[in-house]
Design a protein that fits this description.
This protein has 172 residues and is α+β, with helices and mostly antiparallel strands. The protein is built from four helices and seven strands; from the N terminus they run αβββββββααα. The mean pLDDT is 94. Bound molecules: zinc ion (ZN).
Amino acid sequence: MVKRKIIVYPDPVLSLVSEEVTEIDEETQELIKDMFEAMDEEVGIGLAAPQLGVSERIMVVSIKEKNFERLAIINPVISFFSEETVVIEEGCLSIPGINMDVRRPANIILRGLARSGRLVEINATGMLARVIQHEIDHLDGVLFIDRLSYKDKKAIEANLQALNKQYSAASP
Ligand SMILES: [Zn+2]
């Protein structure tokens, strides 16, 4: 059984800027374990801590590319964005039922800490670069729907309203 449920839009925790992790302790390791578990349960390819209601700068990725199949990064920072951009369709476990094309830089360099506390640097392209940018956005309180044009956002207005309704019905 999954320990923590994925928080769904428009829960305000998804709009918060997350805090840097100052110490990688037992709690951090537990959280990362729970993040992988929640992501796998939904067959996702990435998850950020705020999606489990925790405002800490931690992300996990599960993607078959290079040797980074299972990646957890603490305090991730993108130190390089390519000028070249690419359009890829995105979805989000916190915004069920909505998939839209989003344009972002094609290649990035990611720096952060592995679970062991070791400093890592990853040169990412393709889907890996895309997922990393999507997850780091979560740590800054930004969702992929925030990056849509006015016209595209209009196109999904009804879906967002449905999520808003579900959310207010479920909240006390
Ligand atoms: Zn997401």
